[in-house]
Amino acid sequence: MTDAQPAHLWWPFAVLAAAAVTDVLDGMLARRRGVTSGVGSWLDPICDKLFVAAVLGAIEYYRHPPLLLLGLIVGRELCQLPLSLIYRFVPVLRQWLHYDFHASGLGKAATVAQFMAVAALLVDSPGQWVAAWVAFGVGMLALGDYLRRAVMIGRRRLRGRRRTGRE
Q1: ∠ CA(86), CA(91), CA(96), 5° rounding?
Q2: I need a labelling partner for 164 at 20 to 30 A (CA). Which of 8, 55, 81, 90 fits?
Q3: What pLDDT was estimated at residue 130?
Q4: Distance (Å, rounded) from C-alpha 71 to C-alpha 66?
Q5: Cα angle vertex 103, ends 97, 105, to 5°?
Q6: Which residues of the chain have pLDDT under 70?
Q7: What are phi and psi of 68, to 5 degrees?
């Protein structure tokens, strides 16, 4: 351990690692036991985001890293929030899409990249900027994938209505 990474920084890192491991195990066990639910599919990512926000808030409070660095780490959420609000408050859009909130492979990779970037920031790693840019890039790819899936779901529903004569 170097002077730049004192022992007291490893306790928060251990909590972050434990949270990441339990998040993965929780999802695996739920799928294996067949106890997945619609509520769990949207509640789990919200809890992940709240956890990351709390950790980043604590880091900002104690260490004051550059806001750009924090913004890169939460870039996906910053872009996703207005889209989620539009989806939530535009009933026609919700009726058209009936979007499923199950995570994609890219979404899971974005969460892993984000947790890695938070960990790098937490221990003040020299690679924290690279990790933040990776989290941002993978997050944007995941967000694009979710938008693509949403449009595909909407188009399928629209085609189905046209075939049945309901518009």
Answers
A1: 95
A2: 90
A3: 97
A4: 9
A5: 120
A6: 1-10, 31, 35-43, 98-101, 161-162, 164-167
A7: -60, -40
Instruction: Write out the two tokens for 12.
Output: 């928060």
Q: What pLDDT shows up at residue 1?
A: 39
Q: To 5 degrees, how large is the angle CA 7–CA 10–CA 15?
A: 150
Q: How much is the pTM?
A: 0.75
Interatomic CA distance for residues 131 and 78, integer angstroms: 17
Q: What is the 3-state secondary structure (H, E, C) of the chain?
A: CCCCCCHHHHHHHHHHHHHHHHHHHHHHHHHHHCCCCHHHHHHHHHHHHHHHHHHHHHHHHHHCCCHHHHHHHCHHHHHHHHHHHHHHHCHHHHHHHCCCCCCCHHHHHHHHHHHHHHHHHHCCCCCHHHHHHHHHHHHHHHHHHHHHHHHHHHHHHHHHHHHHCCC
Predicted pLDDT at 109: 92
